User: Fold this.
Amino acid sequence: MDDAHLHPLTLQEVDAVCALARIVWQATYPALIPQAQIDAMLADRYAAGRIQSQLDDPDHAWRIAKRNQETVGFAHAVLEGAHCKLDKLYVHPGYQRQGIGAALLHAVRNWARQQQARRLWLQVNRGNTQAIAAYRKYGFVIAGSQVFDIGDGFVMDDHVMELTL
Assistant:
């Protein structure tokens, strides 16, 4: 991750994160979930107003990675009592396997420790073998699997992975 820069997400960078989310999701999820679900989840989880409100919430941490002024990755974590959920971690397909995801994960893990969290957990689509392998590489273990009803007839068929902090 030689020339990439990580920092907390700013209000001015929210639109770039939303645009990057669409790029990554379109490269990753069409083989795993229907396009209508991708569109619905992007509209819900990457609504600019939703992200903006989380920037002022001390229980949320957003980190962004930039290389040469281009947004190349981001992560979002939320504190849930004694645990922390890694809610989002995405890297542009053209910048994957360059240490950016590892750096973002490290930043989130450090933030979670500062918040006294004892465990970092996440949900990952069972079919997303590349992400599962990456999380295992960084010490996460599969704690279980579950189908989550997210409304509008859509479900997430995920592994729940966790890492003790």
About this structure: The radius of gyration is 15 Å. The longest strand covers residues 70-80. The domain at 4-117 is CATH 3.40.630.30 (Aminopeptidase).
